[in-house]
Design a protein that fits this description.
This is Methyltransferase type 11 domain-containing protein. By secondary structure, the protein is of the alpha+beta class. It is built from two helices and four strands. The N and C termini lie far apart (28 Å).
């Protein structure tokens, strides 16, 4: 990523970082959601969506199968509850790659 001057890699709790709304065109979340506490998940995802520009996209790479995965239907329900709509899905074995678009 060093050669790309328009890409930022950020690590931390999105709720505590003070990132302004409508900051990002694209956000990638890789193999993280299944680690987040269920009781905080919707709040975390809503914070992510708030930093996304209108018509921005969130790309999610996630395990879908037990014991560590999150069921696909649950993933869709979570993201649809934050104001995103599913636009692309690719699944292979126990992993899914999802594209959600801000409405």
């Amino acid at each position: 990523l060093r050669k790309y001057t328009n890409v930022d890699f950020i690590l931390g709790d999105i709720r505590e970082m003070g990132i302004p709304a409508n900051s990002f065109d694209r956000i990638t979340i890789s193999w993280v959601i299944h680690h987040l506490p269920k009781e905080e998940l919707l709040d975390i995802l809503q914070s992510i969506v708030n930093t996304l520009k209108p018509d921005g996209k969130v790309y999610v790479i996630e395990f879908l199968a037990p014991p560590h995965g999150i069921p696909e239907a649950e993933l869709f329900k979570l993201f649809n509850g934050t104001g995103l709509s599913e636009s692309e899905v690719f699944k292979k074995k126990k992993t899914g790659i999802f594209e959600f678009k801000k409405k």
